[in-house]
Design brief:
By secondary structure, this protein is of the alpha+beta class. It is built from 4 helices and 3 strands, in the order H-E-H-H-E-E-H. The protein has helices at residues 14-25, 30-40, 49-62, 85-113, and strands spanning 28-29, 65-71, 77-83. Strand 2 (65-71) and strand 3 form a beta hairpin. Helix 1 (14-25) packs across helix 4 (85-113). The chain is elongated, with a radius of gyration of 16 Å.
Amino acid sequence: MVKKPEFRDLFPGALELMILKTLSRKPMHGYALAQRIKETSDDLLQIEEGSLYPALQRMLKTGWLISEMGLSAKNRPVRIFKLTQAGRKHLEQEISSVEQMFAGISRVLALARQ
């Protein structure tokens, strides 16, 4: 019997989409961001540091995010990430694209049930 994996890979762009959406609500540091995504997904999604921080760096380079130094709830220095106007625009485009993709997938799944 094949053991079902506990966590599955995300589709390309999903991590960036979740980061942008989460930061659109409020700026936060990386650890808080990962925890917020985990909580919001009811623990179905767990973002590893090895994926999160490289994604944040890519998004800083593309201009979707900016960062500044701040303090965590425990008074430790942290890098706070904020969405830029370009990031907000990209988020809107990506949400539309994902909605279209899921609509297509839903149609295929509905036909498969017939």
